């Protein structure tokens, strides 16, 4: 994974043309390892395109460029607790300040970020969210062929209610602390590129208090995940390369036992994946990867789990004004639902970004996800559709409008499905 580009892409999305209101779309706690640097400068997406009359200028301090930003939003959610019956709707307000500092050096790089998100529901304080994130990423260019990249992130987050790791009705109340440290070395020579990286992510979950006053201890979810990754890539042409990647990770839970009294799910896992990385001018770019994942648990209570792993992302360019993005993923995740231990998340999404006017960007996205809980008859289907528009007033101001519909179905005897609609109007002020 190209850590530098991942951070820069994420910050550019938050500052520029992201869909307001739905920042936590990722359904996983741990970031996936997938080569995301397929961009060779042969194509330019709608959201990447420079718009000098509307892009934020930033504050130049000499060595750094500062980019402050504030988003103010008003929205409505038809089912804030994601219930099948007795739905509760509420209006809400959002305040999301952030600042980014990027170095302006000819060699090496340093990026610092700080952001917060305050969401307040009218008359439903139990659903309020206060989250924050601090991040630093630095790259040292040892020579023309070798570089070292280090990263640290510290965040207090609200759990994604669609993650599948716990019931959605509980996830609405779940908050957790995530700390991440990573180091990567990358070597390039001719047609070859390789990297080795190591990272560690710690999760510490806060105890929950439900609307009826019930308290739930989440201490048995606290864990550390240590991961080592190696990848080799060979470019057949400037437009096409092939890669192979190996990942090994260790999951170590703080508590030896679950709240049920069973052994916790300490484990080791490895994944081998390979595929293609391409960037064809005027047509498409992306990464297609597939392989095998296997997880072994320390406790004899849990069987070894293995299966297909997929990471794919393709961007197509039918015209200069339209970008179509397709994504597919199959990954193995931990579960804290009843007696289940892990589940396979199988997802596919399609998104269209269209530049209707130079300063009016439209988008639409559709996603389907199938959650298959290993060793259980339980499974969930998730369907999600969203649309949005961003109107760029000038370099400092923009307006956003977004809407999202979500539906989850599940088989009888397990947690209830639900339907939810959200809409939001946003004002973004930036420098």
From TrEMBL:
Pfam families: BBP2_2 (PF10082). This is Outer membrane beta-barrel protein. It comes from Sphingobium jiangsuense.
């Amino acid at each position: 994974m190209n850590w530098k580009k991942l951070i820069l892409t994420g910050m550019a999305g938050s500052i520029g043309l992201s869909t307001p209101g739905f920042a936590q779309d990722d359904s996983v706690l741990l970031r996936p390892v997938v080569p995301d640097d397929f961009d060779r400068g042969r194509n330019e997406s709608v959201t990447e395109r420079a718009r000098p009359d509307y892009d934020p200028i930033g504050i130049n301090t000499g060595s750094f460029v500062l980019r402050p930003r504030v988003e103010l939003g008003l929205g409505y959610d038809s089912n804030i607790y994601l219930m099948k019956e007795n739905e509760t709707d509420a209006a809400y307000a959002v305040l999301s300040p952030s600042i980014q500092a990027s170095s302006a050096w000819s060699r090496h790089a340093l990026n610092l970020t700080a952001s917060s998100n305050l969401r307040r529901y009218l008359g439903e304080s139990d659903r309020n969210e206060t989250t924050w994130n601090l991040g630093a990423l630095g790259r040292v260019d040892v020579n023309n062929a070798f570089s070292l990249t280090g990263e640290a992130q510290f965040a207090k987050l609200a759990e994604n209610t669609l993650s599948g790791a716990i019931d959605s009705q509980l996830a609405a109340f779940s908050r957790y602390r995530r700390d991440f440290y990573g180091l990567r070395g990358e070597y390039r020579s001719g047609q070859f590129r390789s990297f080795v990286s190591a990272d560690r992510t710690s999760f510490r979950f806060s105890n929950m208090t439900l609307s009826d006053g019930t308290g739930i201890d989440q201490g048995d979810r606290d864990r550390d995940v240590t991961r080592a990754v190696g990848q080799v890539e060979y470019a057949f042409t400037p437009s096409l390369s092939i890669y192979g990647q190996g990942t090994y990770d260790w999951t170590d839970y703080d508590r030896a036992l679950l709240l049920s009294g069973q052994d916790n799910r300490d484990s080791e896992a490895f994944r081998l994946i390979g595929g293609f990385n391409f960037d064809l001018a005027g047509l498409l770019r992306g990464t297609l990867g597939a392989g095998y994942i296997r997880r072994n648990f320390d406790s004899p209570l849990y069987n070894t789990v293995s299966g297909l792993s997929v990471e794919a992302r393709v961007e197509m360019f039918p015209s200069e004004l339209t970008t179509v993005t397709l994504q597919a993923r199959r990954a193995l995740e931990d579960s804290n639902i009843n007696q289940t231990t892990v589940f396979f998340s199988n997802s596919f999404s399609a998104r269209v970004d269209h530049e209707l006017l130079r300063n009016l960007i439209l988008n639409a996205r559709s996603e389907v996800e199938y959650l298959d809980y290993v060793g259980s008859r339980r499974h969930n289907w998730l369907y999600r559709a969203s649309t949005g528009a961003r109107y760029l007033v000038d370099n400092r101001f923009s307006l956003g409008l977004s809407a999202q519909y979500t539906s989850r179905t599940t088989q009888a005897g397990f947690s209830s499905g639900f339907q939810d609609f959200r809409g939001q109007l946003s004002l973004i002020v930036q420098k």
